[in-house]
Design a protein that fits this description.
globular; two-stranded antiparallel sheet; 7 helices; single chain; alpha+beta; 344 residues; 16 strands; 2 domains
């Protein structure tokens, strides 16, 4: 294997803490949450995961909506099951949410929804993202300025979507009164996110919580997404590590040529189609050893905060960007698992 192409050690400005959106929690958690807690399998990271292979988006996948999900940075939230949610009432929900946003604007909240301050909310099904027949259909929420409503998606000022891909056996005991869409992804102003989240919580007795990603799961993502077959768009695999130091924080950027990362993984993986915890550990330790050999820095003493691969990128603060529809189902499957684990 040729010598990998490594990145650089880059000092950054001192970090300021980023505060996520704080939703107004409802008085009572939905009863569906109790069922999840009783039957959850994810008290800890599983010892084995399946590599997301090229997904066959369902035939009913909307070719106009799927591109909205790609190459855009999303903020992740976990959501408890929605009580008495009905797919047949999406038009009613759109109208009610529009009215709720308008009411909140009149209270003086800063919501950027267009120069004329007129907005239109649309809730619609996001077809093609189900992993199994048991999964609930994904929901797309779009907020547009009325002035640009004739320009299709060009007038969109805020977008969010709920999904559940491969809901797993642990959700079997959630009653039919609840709709399980544990992953909520948002792109838009935090002020509007807070209003939309508050409406959903009040209307469907659910709870939102920002979903962060710990270094262990980021390492899993690095290994699983490196293992994916890519026909094109082979960008570098980049790992960002945070170094705890004072008075200025330091980030280390570690870039590996995708073919080198792939070759390393193939020399470690025992069984095609699955990833083991011990393989993830070995993959990361090999990268650490190589980096130390060149720069005399122990990455094991730092904290992994971001992973970027040709498949997707993810940050520990709960930001994710999916690059290709080819692996959309696989990425959503992993996010569903993490969201359900976070709910418990």
């Amino acid at each position: 294997m040729d010598e990998p192409d490594f990145g650089e050690v880059t000092p950054l400005r001192e970090r300021t803490t980023e505060h996520g959106v704080n939703f107004n929690n409802t008085t009572h958690l939905s009863k569906g949450l109790t069922s999840i807690r009783k039957h959850t399998l994810f008290g800890q990271t599983p010892a084995k995961r399946i590599i997301p292979q090229i997904s066959q988006l369902q035939e009913n996948a909307d070719s106009q909506k799927i591109p909205i999900l790609l190459c855009k940075q999303w903020t992740l939230y976990s959501v408890t099951p929605l009580y008495k949610f009905s797919y047949s009432r999406l038009k009613d929900y759109s109208r009610l949410l529009s009215a709720f946003i308008a009411t909140e604007k009149q209270k003086g909240l800063a919501v950027e929804v267009g120069n004329d301050l007129g907005i239109k909310v649309t809730l619609s099904t996001l077809l093609g993202l189900k992993g199994t027949d048991q999964d609930d259909e994904a929901i797309l929420v779009q907020v547009r300025s009325v002035a640009n409503i004739t320009n299709s998606y060009q007038g969109m000022t805020w977008c969010g979507w709920f999904s559940c891909t491969y809901r797993l056996d642990l959700l079997e005991n959630v009653t039919e009164d609840f709709t399980c869409l544990p992953v909520f992804l948002v792109n838009g102003a935090e002020s509007l996110t807070a209003i939309v989240g508050t409406w959903f919580q009040k209307t469907f007795d659910c709870c939102f919580s920002q979903l962060t990603i710990n270094p262990l799961n980021l390492a899993w993502m690095a290994a699983m997404w490196t293992a994916c077959k890519m026909d094109s768009h082979m960008t570098a695999v980049e790992l960002i590590f945070s170094v705890p130091c004072s008075p200025q924080s330091l980030d280390i950027s570690y870039a590996i040529h995708p073919q080198d990362a792939k070759a390393l993984w193939q020399s470690i993986q025992k069984t095609q189609g699955e990833v083991l915890q011990e393989e993830v550990d070995l993959f990361m330790n090999c990268l650490y050893s190589h980096f130390h050999r060149h720069f005399k820095i122990h990455l094991s003493a730092t904290r992994l905060v971001k992973v970027s691969t040709p498949v997707a990128s993810a940050h520990s603060d709960g930001k994710i960007k999916i690059q290709h529809s080819q692996y959309l189902i696989g990425v959503l499957s992993l996010l569903t698992e993490l969201a359900i684990a976070h709910i418990q």
